[in-house]
Write a structure and sequence with these properties.
six-stranded parallel sheet, globular, 9 helices, alpha/beta
């Protein structure tokens, strides 16, 4: 029986992927590297320090350190969230449905805590989450399962009793590796991706979720 729901953040609670794209394109351009939308899509769900390290291996730059580049990107994303961020369609309704069922609600994200606080504050939903965990404090980010395992620990629930909600294949792998039931609400760039077949459930948008559907899933 499922007793908890653990949300990913980017692309699930908030449509932040366009913000990440804009920030990456701007910062990497400043470093002399043209960064495409395809480049951005290839690293959806990857922790920001791992993303920067990945591109440094492929296209090394001189000047700022990788840590400084990480901070530049993060600062731009947070600024965009605070200025333009909105909850994704169906998020507030889904939270209400889960609360009505008495489910514990948590968050497991690759994004650092500074961004988590910016998003939850901007959306006005910080008090809806009993536990918040970031891969920032883990040795490995997604697709490693630790961020999900430790989010479940914070909720006081075994991972096998959790429903994870993801939008990326990287995150989906992490949830499944943690032995969680997984719902994929795919990022538009991943619609039709056959790899997403490993999810237990799939919705085009969280607004499709209703009380009857949720009741079937948590049995």
């Amino acid at each position: 029986m499922l007793t908890a729901v653990i949300f990913d953040m980017d692309g699930v609670l908030i449509d932040s992927e366009p913000f990440w794209q804009r920030a990456q394109m701007a910062v990497f351009s400043e470093l002399g590297h043209f960064h495409t939308e395809e480049d951005c899509n290839s690293t959806i769900g990857v922790r920001i320090d791992q993303l920067v390290a990945h591109w440094y291996r492929i296209r090394p730059w001189s000047g700022p350190t990788q840590e400084q580049v990480v901070q530049r990107i993060l600062d731009q994303v947070i600024a965009l969230i605070l200025r333009e961020g909105q909850p994704k369609e169906g998020v507030l309704e889904a939270l209400a449905l889960m609360e009505a069922r008495g489910l514990k609600i948590g968050l497991a994200t690759s994004s650092p805590f500074a961004m988590v606080e910016a998003v939850l504050g901007k959306l006005g939903i910080r008090d809806r989450f009993l536990a918040v965990h970031s891969a920032e404090v883990e040795r490995f980010g997604k697709p490693h399962p630790d961020v999900y395992i430790h989010a479940a620990e914070k909720l006081g629930v075994e991972p096998v009793h959790c429903l994870a909600i993801e939008d990326s294949f990287t995150g989906l792998l992490a949830a499944k590796a943690a032995s969680m039931t997984a719902l994929i609400v795919p990022d538009p760039a991943l619609v039709g991706d056959p790899r997403l077949a490993i999810a237990n459930h799939r919705l085009a948008c969280l607004s499709e979720l209703d009380a009857e559907m949720l009741a079937r899933w948590i049995k």
